[in-house]
């Protein structure tokens, strides 16, 4: 679950080094940043994540000095690399960046500007890095990411920054496996009272990607409804028939999600939020919340009464009451392209016109804002 475009882009072969070269592949058209523009914020956040990928590529390919390619991915936008985050195998899985022009915006409080961005890359299938990364990919599938050392290191780095700086000026960003780390860190920080602005690109979801299955919308709705009711029934039996409410703190965190319906790794988020909205419309939000909170695995191996609804380890990582989701509805030629980080700094405004925004917010009486995605 990584960058996914090193081999091909739009059907054409591209050299690995070219994808790391900002002047060839990056959003170099953004010569000035308007922080009120969501596309600009998205481009900067995704570029910083790509900078982490390139830092690791520089390390693996022993590119140093003038041969190193990572710096332009953050220096072009006036960021400084403060710290690289290392895993047990010495691979670079994240980085902390500081925005050099942050003080210029102190008199514009209505403009969202980061002082620090903590960025996490996804899977790198090169060198010895792939072994550690694939182990974490499996943890995502089985909802045990919180048990990994990298997750612990990432959470410690985020908490250290929150403890030492104004949390409202700290942003998180990640792609694929790195997006899962952002979800884990963001939800963890939210539950202790810190809402961190988060940009989550192509996050993995441990569910069947109904978006890519054949059949009409009604068939998919029936399948999802049946699965939810069965899971909710089993979960309520195992918890003494207690309906679990959304944690109000978690509901107040509204991350930015970026997904592509042709990407099997993240496409499930579209169906997840569509189903969440549908269940709200028919007055079955309680069933939806209870069924969603427990994964099939946790129901099979969990023990009655041993977990709390506020325990992140007992619920699927993708469980989100609120989100601002951007869906790239362009038709890619390859699923690897659909999973690519590059699509989120798309330079072609005509292609960006096919992005669709979907806002999910909890409302009183268990109602949700309508999902506009068709």
Walkthrough of the structure:
The protein has helices at residues 16-20, 22-25, 38-60, 72-75, 129-141, 149-164, 177-190, 217-238, 248-251, 268-281, 285-293, 296-301, 335-338, 349-352; strands at residues 8-9, 12-13, 79-86, 92-99, 116-120, 170-175, 197-201, 256-259, 323-328, 355-360, 362-363, 367-368. The model is unreliable at 4-15, 227-238 and 296-310 (pLDDT under 50). 44% of the residues are buried. Helix 8 (217-238) packs across helix 11 (285-293). The protein is built from 14 helices and twelve strands. The protein has a single domain (8-208, 248-271, 320-360), classed as 3-Layer(aba) Sandwich (Rossmann fold). Helices cover 38% and strands 15% of the residues. The protein has 374 residues and is α/β, with parallel strands linked by helices. Strands 3-4-5-6-7-8-9-10 form an eight-stranded mixed sheet, sandwiched between helices.
List keywords for this structure.
alpha/beta; two-stranded antiparallel sheet; 374 residues; 38% helix; Rossmann fold; 8-stranded mixed sheet
How would you briefly describe this protein structure?
With 374 residues, the protein is of the alpha/beta class.
Question: Can you lay out the helices and strands and say which pair or pack?
Answer:
Blueprint: E1 8-9, E2 12-13, H1 16-20, H2 22-25, H3 38-60, H4 72-75, E3 79-86, E4 92-99, E5 116-120, H5 129-141, H6 149-164, E6 170-175, H7 177-190, E7 197-201, H8 217-238, H9 248-251, E8 256-259, H10 268-281, H11 285-293, H12 296-301, E9 323-328, H13 335-338, H14 349-352, E10 355-360, E11 362-363, E12 367-368
Parallel strand pairs: 5-6, 6-7, 7-8, 8-9
Antiparallel strand pairs: 1-2, 3-4, 4-5, 9-10, 11-12
Helix pairs in contact: 6-7, 8-11, 10-11
């Amino acid at each position: 679950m990584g960058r996914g475009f090193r081999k091909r882009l739009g059907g054409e072969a591209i050299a690995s080094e070219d994808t790391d070269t900002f002047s060839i592949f990056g959003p170099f058209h953004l010569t000035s940043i308007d922080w009120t523009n969501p596309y600009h914020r998205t481009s900067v956040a995704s570029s910083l994540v790509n900078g982490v990928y390139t830092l690791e590529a520089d390390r693996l390919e022993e590119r140093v000095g003038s041969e190193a390619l990572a710096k332009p991915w953050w220096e072009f936008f006036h960021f400084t690399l403060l710290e690289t985050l290392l895993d047990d195998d010495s691979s670079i899985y994240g980085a902390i960046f500081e925005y050099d022009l942050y003080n210029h915006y102190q008199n514009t409080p209505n403009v969202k500007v980061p002082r620090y961005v903590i960025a996490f890359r996804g899977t790198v299938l090169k060198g010895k890095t792939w072994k550690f990364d694939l182990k974490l990919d499996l943890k995502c599938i089985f909802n045990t990411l919180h048990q990994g050392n990298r997750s612990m290191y990432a959470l410690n780095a985020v908490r250290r920054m929150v403890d030492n700086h104004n949390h409202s000026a700290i942003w998180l960003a990640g792609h694929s496996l790195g997006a899962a780390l952002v979800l884990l860190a963001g939800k963890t920080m939210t539950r202790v009272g810190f809402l961190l602005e988060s940009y989550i690109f192509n996050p993995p979801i441990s569910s069947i990607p109904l978006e890519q299955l054949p059949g009409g919308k009604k068939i998919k709705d029936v399948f999802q409804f049946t699965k939810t009711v069965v899971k909710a029934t089993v979960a309520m039996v195992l918890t003494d028939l207690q309906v679990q409410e959304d944690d109000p703190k978690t509901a107040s965190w509204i991350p930015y999600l970026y997904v592509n319906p042709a990407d099997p790794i993240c496409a499930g988020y579209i169906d997840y939020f569509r189903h969440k909205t549908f269940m709200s419309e028919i007055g079955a939000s309680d069933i939806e919340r209870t069924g969603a909170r427990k994964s099939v695995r946790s129901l099979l191996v969990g023990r009655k009464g041993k977990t709390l609804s506020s325990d992140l380890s007992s619920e699927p990582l993708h469980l989100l009451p609120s989100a601002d989701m951007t869906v790239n509805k362009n038709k890619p030629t390859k699923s690897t392209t659909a999973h690519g980080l590059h699509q989120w700094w798309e330079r072609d405004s005509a292609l960006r016109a096919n992005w669709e925004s979907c806002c999910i917010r909890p409302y009183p009486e268990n109602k949700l804002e309508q999902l506009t995605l068709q």
